[in-house]
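Run NERD domain-containing protein through structure prediction, thanks.
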Amino acid sequence: MQHWDSTTFLIAAVALAAAFFIWKRWFWQGGGTPQALDARLSRLGESYQILKDVSLTTPQGIVSIDRLVVSPYGVFVISISSLKGRLTGRPGDREWWAKQGGQTVAVYNPLLENRKIVNQIAPQLGVDPLIPLVVFLNARLGSDFGVSATPLSALPQFFLRYQRETLSPEQQEEIIRQVSQNPNVF
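Sure, done. The structure for NERD domain-containing protein is below.
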């Protein structure tokens, strides 16, 4: 009978571990937060100036930018996505699909919104390059959404792609001045 009890215990422990793994994989999506994003951005180094929750007035109206990172390598326009589940679709599709557990729902493509923001602020800032980026805090990317989409865990690798200096210190300061003088900067 002693052998049966240890076998039963082992089976129960394996089943519990498997259930936890499945729950973590399919239902809990990593717990990414904007604060976790800020912590990762702050580790980029002193040459990256991070501006949070920026609002700029453009001819099209007020544009809200989650994060604007000014660096010698360009200006990164970051949108934060808190979508959860496994995302599928194509970069140019208007809608993507998010699968959470057993349900699949249509969601608006955040890359399109980020690109719209970049296009609206480009004439005002007069910067090249303006680099679009959507950071997915909690979603698993089930499709190749291109270089403008990255999970939070891959953020350092995204920035490593941009190592050619394109902006002088004076240009960087001018961009920060323009953004800071805007009456809608929070």
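Residues 25-29 have pLDDT under 50 and may be disordered.
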